[in-house]
């Protein structure tokens, strides 16, 4: 049975990325060696990381003066790297749920944290807007897409201070104005690569402004100077990332990715709003294109397990909601074909016919 | 042409590990999904990490009271995690070269560092022995195998204080008395898995003894409590690690790995000592079984490039020495077959016949 992968992350990758990776695991570029066993100092890998870096610049129109890093770990490590490297006295954070909390927790060990705005009052079902950014903070940090609550910012704020953003789950799904940021980071395991890799886009002249000692591996400047090779980087995830970046370029770039994201979201939210058994959980204007949250209406909630089973029988994988929020979550990352979204929509229609 | 992979790391893995990984990239356990795109919360992956943890315990006879962690990153991150978690006032470090230096540098930010012994006087060509371990230090840290200089400790010291060891490059190549250690760590990219993964074996009751704030991702206790799932772990490297652990078990365990390591080293060092053109660089009793360093004798040193080319033509990859030390280095990790060592030995003999 064909599987439709709606996991929130690690998550769907383009089939040609998967096939190219499998081929490289057996034999990289006809070298007779596996991508699992080549030195990161080999010519073959140097070409991989150079091209991946260069495609980041090209696809996101990254201006001069920024460096793209590929590091082991995940976004959770960046939650502490960011204040280690950028927080002098005070930082501003938007509180939009789970991931923001984790970032805020780490920052508090380094200085004052101004919670500039929060949507906690309505269980993070909307996004704060029209907040006043404190001009005396070192940066404003926010999570562009909130995988757990299903909300997403689609703009790069005008701000009197530099922006820092966790774009783990929506990088490459829309154009970004990188010049407004001193740091954009994320785990790669949504729109880019398998897990075990972080990307960081860092503004060079924003570094080395803090006085504290930074452990070597947490110091962005070290990784900038060593071009992500201070220590052995995650070779296979970077290889897969390159395959995804080539795929994005071939599809037409981030503008095309954005249109597809809009179309997928439109199809699924349309069905959620139409279907008499389901409802959305998020303010309409803040609905994430990447992670679509929905629940059964109160009168049908006893059928939750049954719907999961019904979907599973149709090859639909990974739509069980996050343990904090319950209900359902369908993640629609770049690699998700419209045909899979249609399968989920048809499944919801069929379930309605049988049960409402 | 068949390749013989002597890279120092990332490095050779058993062919069946490579093939099983390629298969899982296309379709994991017949699930219809790739190991690159499954959630770390899926049943399939939970089974993988549970079995990998359990095989660590079994193959290394890890006593009760220890936890095995699989973390993103690499040993370089552990250089700062170790003092963050264990250094109260003073720590003792053995200085045996490049990796020890890096570990020492991080520790110095956290307290007093006693350089208990060093072999810097002879360019790290031997290993300090019969040193006096300070009884008032929190732990003694050492690098069991030194990939750059080609030296290796084959024993777990008797010590008045707990041991901490970087075993990146010789884990699973001999039995270890884990009970002497509070922490054994390493990057996985030598004897275990592709790069992007660290393993840490930590003694549970040695944790939470320091007063400082530890950033969440650097706190071993967090990862112990969350069973390596505080954040998304590197799924594919852990899958490959499991394949390697199964392979080690099938071969007969670490005792068999040790005998093979001894046999491979004996064959290659034997040729180095016999051959009129080459010589070793390390005190005989400290010669590493994992990384064999050798050079051309002074009168032949102009032929270095020629020997590399000669070897390359015979499918021998990765024997160029580290940029610090020059010369040659052949890494003989667990997956290295005797037949490949024989190819290198024959190549050295042939080169001697043509050039001496």
UniProtKB/TrEMBL annotation, chains A, B:
EC numbers for this chain: 2.6.1.52
Superkingdom of origin organism: Bacteria
Listed pathway(s): Amino-acid biosynthesis; L-serine biosynthesis; L-serine from 3-phospho-D-glycerate: step 2/3; Cofactor biosynthesis; pyridoxine 5'-phosphate biosynthesis; pyridoxine 5'-phosphate from D-erythrose 4-phosphate: step 3/5
Chief localisation class: cytoplasm
Binding site for L-glutamate: 41
Cofactor(s) it depends on: pyridoxal 5'-phosphate
Subcellular location(s) per record: Cytoplasm
Reaction equation(s) it catalyzes: 4-(phosphooxy)-L-threonine + 2-oxoglutarate = (R)-3-hydroxy-2-oxo-4-phosphooxybutanoate + L-glutamate; O-phospho-L-serine + 2-oxoglutarate = 3-phosphooxypyruvate + L-glutamate
Sequence intervals crossing the membrane: none
Cofactor binding description: Binds 1 pyridoxal phosphate per subunit.
N6-(pyridoxal phosphate)lysine, modified sites: 190
Residues binding pyridoxal 5'-phosphate: 75-76, 99, 147, 166, 189, 231-232
EC category name: transferase
One example of a Gene Ontology biological process annotation: L-serine biosynthetic process
Physiological role: Catalyzes the reversible conversion of 3-phosphohydroxypyruvate to phosphoserine and of 3-hydroxy-2-oxo-4-phosphonooxybutanoate to phosphohydroxythreonine.
UniProt record similarity statement: Belongs to the class-V pyridoxal-phosphate-dependent aminotransferase family. SerC subfamily.
Subunit structure of this chain's protein: Homodimer.
Full protein name: Phosphoserine aminotransferase
Organism classification: Bacteria, Pseudomonadati, Bacteroidota, Bacteroidia, Bacteroidales
Gene name, Swiss-Prot/TrEMBL: serC
């Amino acid at each position: 049975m064909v599987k439709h992968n709606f996991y929130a992350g690690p998550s769907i990758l383009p089939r040609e990325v998967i096939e190219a990776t499998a081929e490289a695991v057996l034999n990289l570029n006809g070298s007779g060696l596996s991508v699992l066993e080549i030195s990161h100092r080999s010519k073959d890998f140097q070409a991989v990381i150079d091209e991946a870096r260069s495609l980041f610049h090209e696809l996101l129109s990254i201006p001069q003066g920024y460096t793209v890093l590929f590091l082991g770990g995940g976004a959770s490590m960046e939650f502490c790297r960011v204040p280690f490297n950028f927080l002098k006295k005070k930082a501003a954070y938007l509180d939009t749920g789970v991931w923001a909390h984790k970032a805020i927790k780490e920052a508090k060990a380094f200085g004052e944290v101004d919670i500039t705005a929060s949507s906690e009052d309505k269980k993070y079902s909307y996004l704060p807007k029209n907040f006043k950014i404190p001009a005396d903070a070192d940066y404003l940090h926010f999570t562009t897409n909130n995988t757990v609550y299903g909300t997403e910012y689609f703009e790069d704020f005008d701000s009197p201070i530099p922006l820092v953003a966790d774009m783990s789950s929506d990088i490459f799904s829309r154009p970004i104005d990188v010049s407004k940021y001193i740091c954009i980071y994320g785990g790669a395991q949504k729109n880019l690569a398998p897990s075990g890799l972080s990307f960081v886009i860092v503004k060079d002249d924003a570094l080395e402004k803090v006085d504290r000692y930074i452990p070597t591996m947490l110091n962005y400047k070290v990784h900038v100077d060593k071009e992500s090779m201070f220590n052995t980087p995650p070779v296979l995830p970077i290889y897969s990332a390159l395959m995804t970046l080539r795929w994005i370029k071939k599809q037409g770039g981030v503008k095309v990715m954005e249109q597809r994201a809009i179309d997928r979201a439109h199809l699924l939210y349309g069905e959620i709003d139409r279907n008499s058994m389901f409802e959305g959980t998020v303010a309409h204007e803040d609905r994430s294109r990447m992670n679509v949250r929905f629940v059964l209406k109160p009168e049908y909630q006893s059928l939750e397990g049954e719907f999961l089973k019904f979907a599973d029988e149709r090859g639909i994988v990974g739509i069980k909601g996050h343990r904090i929020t319950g209900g359902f979550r369908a993640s629609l990352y770049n690699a998700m074909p419209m045909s899979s979204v249609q399968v989920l929509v048809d499944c919801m229609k069929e379930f309605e016919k049988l049960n409402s």
